[in-house]
Amino acid sequence: MNDKTELLEEYDNLIKVKQKLDFNYFLYMLLVITFIAVFAFPKIYINQQIYYTSRDISKLQVEYETLQEENKLIRSSVESIKFKNQVLDTMF
Predict the structure, then answer these.
(1) In Å, what is the CA distance from 26 to each residue of 18, 31, 41, 75, 92?
(2) Residues 46, 55: Cα–Cα separation, whole Å
């Protein structure tokens, strides 16, 4: 029984040593997280900027097409008014 307890105690001591986190491990993990953040955050930022810019471009494209259609309607209305004025001017 004594051998078993000694073996278990030594095993516990080895496990406790491995479970302790030292300062070098902490610095290593901090470096890894910083490295990942440096490369991940700019990509996320650029993707968001591309999304918002493309959304704005799409909205402006729709407004542009609407204004073109309104321009066509206004031109036809102006043309109709000009024609009526020319016809009425010749009648009087």
Answers:
(1) 14, 9, 22, 72, 97
(2) 14
What 3-state DSSP class applies to 20?
coil
What are the C-alpha distances in Å from 34 to residues 24, 37, 47, 61?
15, 5, 20, 40
Residue carrying structure tokens 């494209």: 61
What pLDDT does residue 76 have? 95
The three-class DSSP label of residue 84 is: helix
pLDDT, tens digit, for every residue of 66-88? 999 999 999 999 999 988 888 87
CA angle 30, 48, 35 (to 5 degrees): 15
